[in-house]
Design brief:
Length: about 525
């Protein structure tokens, strides 16, 4: 949809995106004026305390598989990821694979202790992996554990300690186990942290540079430096992370000097980035991220069981306009199912044409649905991204294509999707690890819980066969080619379609150094220090 076509979406005749942008810009100007007297100075950091704000709660509590998000650095994984989503050492320093790909051995870092002073051992790692398998399936606001944990470990026969190493023995080959279990799925905490049922018995007991001191759900988390940390001692002895869901309130707190930096997914709304970056007291850093905005179709019933109408929706999306205007240049137009952050696994030849005229012809060929299309969005995500605006633009585009639509913003999208009360779901998805298999297997394989329970209705033997082959292939070229075939298939079938690839803006006071956020939204708190 061209920008000029938005005029029909509003009574005033003013293009829809401009009517949304005017109050946003006015609000930001007002915020700049109101806070112009704020110091932006990081007195707290100079005193040895760092205060951050995040849009969501990074503390989940004892019923969660992890207790805290990895970003708080209370716990560490066996394997982490580098800037290119390649496996990188954490608590495991090296790993090797048997010739048949069925046995992986991870050598542990020596001299590591948990925050209670007990040593990291291979036996402790085994306890953690077996706990995950025992408590799965388990929901988490971060990354949920699926039944069997195959998306993390493959078909795991046994995990065992072997001196200072941990051995994973698999029923089937896994091409890249380090990437699969990177970050969340290889969280390690002291066995004493868990009760017999796998629930946390008290506070988390990890190996990270910080320890949890206190927490107030939905409000704040307090951390102090871990005296047993194996690495370089953090420059700041205390970290407070405040949960501030409202985007304008986060920026106001930054400008008033109440917080030193804004971190995590959606730290700045896309429309705030330019105004905040223009303030010389602060530094905005933008990096690529694993986050992609997708449209998911309910293809199990209703109009989108017909692939021609899914194609019609795809053709109505002006991705360039959405990325440049609604996402304010903080995203790039979506094309292949895998974003460019996946490197050569992403297929550069997948194209997503914008052709509203062809969309209208397809709708005319199929016939108009008997009821309006429901575009579902999460009210929580609408506080991180301009989903209300994007959904309204989509509604207008669909209406012009002959598909009348309505927007529904709800808090419990899982419940709504499982009831089947939606046609299109706009949401952002990322990965907990460095393996593309997670996205394919968890969301779209014919037997995936997400696919079956949430009404996607995608059932492709060819898709299942391709991702299963890729998962066991140890030939990197073959694996790349298989994943590119998968993406070309998805570009034709359209069970989910990428709208835009989101980048990763965070902001800090110039009184700080060392704040960066990686593609998985992780900040290295231990590297943040007062500027000299």
């Amino acid at each position: 949809m061209s920008v000029s076509s938005f005029a029909s979406a509003g009574r005033s005749g003013t293009p829809w995106w401009r009517r949304c942008a005017i109050p946003l810009v006015a609000g930001l100007i007002g915020l700049l004026s109101a806070c112009a007297g704020g110091s932006g100075d990081s007195a707290q950091a100079r005193s040895g305390q760092l205060t951050l704000a995040a849009p969501r709660d990074l503390f989940a509590g004892p019923d969660d598989p992890y207790f805290t998000h990895q970003a708080l650095q209370v716990w560490e994984p066996l394997v982490t990821l580098d800037a290119e989503l390649k496996p990188s050492p954490a608590l495991a320093t090296t790993w090797k694979r048997s010739a048949d790909g069925r046995v992986w051995t991870f050598q542990l870092r020596g001299g590591v202790r948990f925050s209670d002073g007990s040593p990291l051992t291979a036996e402790a790692v085994v306890v953690n992996i077996e706990r995950f398998r025992r408590i799965a399936p388990k929901q988490s606001p971060f990354f949920s554990l699926d039944a069997g944990m195959e998306s993390a470990y493959g078909r795991l026969k046994e995990v065992r300690a072997d001196g200072g190493a941990v051995v994973f023995e698999l029923a089937d080959p896994v091409a890249d186990l380090p990437a699969r279990l990177a970050n969340f799925f290889s969280m390690i905490q002291a066995p004493s942290a868990f009760d017999a049922a796998g629930r946390f018995a008290g506070k988390p007991v990890g190996t990270g540079p910080y320890m949890l001191v206190s927490s107030s759900k939905g409000q704040r988390v307090e951390l102090i430096a871990n005296p047993h940390y194996w690495g370089k001692r953090p420059a700041l002895g205390k970290v407070v992370v405040r949960t501030i869901p409202d985007a304008n309130a986060r920026v106001a707190a930054l400008r008033a000097g109440e917080v030193d930096a804004l971190i995590d997914k959606g730290a700045l709304l896309t429309g705030q980035v330019g105004a905040v970056a223009a303030d010389r007291r602060f530094r905005v850093t933008r990096t690529p991220s694993v986050l992609t905005h997708y449209l998911t179709f309910n293809s199990s019933r209703g109009p989108f069981a017909d692939p021609r109408l899914r194609e019609a929706v795809d053709l109505t999306i002006d991705r360039t306009m959405i990325a440049k205007r609604l996402l304010a240049g903080t995203a790039t137009p979506g094309a292949s199912f895998l974003s460019p952050v996946f490197g050569d696994l992403a297929d550069p030849n997948v194209r997503t044409p914008y052709d509203p005229e062809r969309a209208r012809r397809l709708v005319s060929e199929v016939g108009r649905p008997s009821r309006p299309i429901t575009i579902l969005i999460s009210s929580a995500e609408a506080g991180q991204f301009p989903y209300t605006d994007i959904a309204e633009v989509l509604r207008s585009a669909l209406d012009q294509a002959g598909l009348p639509a309505r927007v529904s913003a709800v808090e419990a999208t899982k419940t709504t999707m499982e009831s089947g009360d939606y046609d299109i779901f706009l949401s952002a998805y990322s990965v907990p690890n460095g393996d593309a298999d997670y996205l394919f297997r968890r969301f779209l394989r014919s037997d995936a819980e997400w696919n079956r329970q949430r009404g996607l209705g995608y059932d492709s033997e060819e898709f299942d066969r391709l991702i299963d082959r890729a998962a066991v292939s140890t030939d990197t070229t073959e694996r790349r080619d298989l994943y590119r075939k998968v993406q070309r298939l998805l570009a034709t079938d359209r069970p989910m379609i990428p709208v835009a690839y989101q980048d990763n803006p965070v902001v800090a006071s110039n009184a700080l150094t060392g704040l960066t956020q990686d593609a998985c939204y992780l900040v290295d708190l231990a590297k943040i220090a007062p500027a000299s």
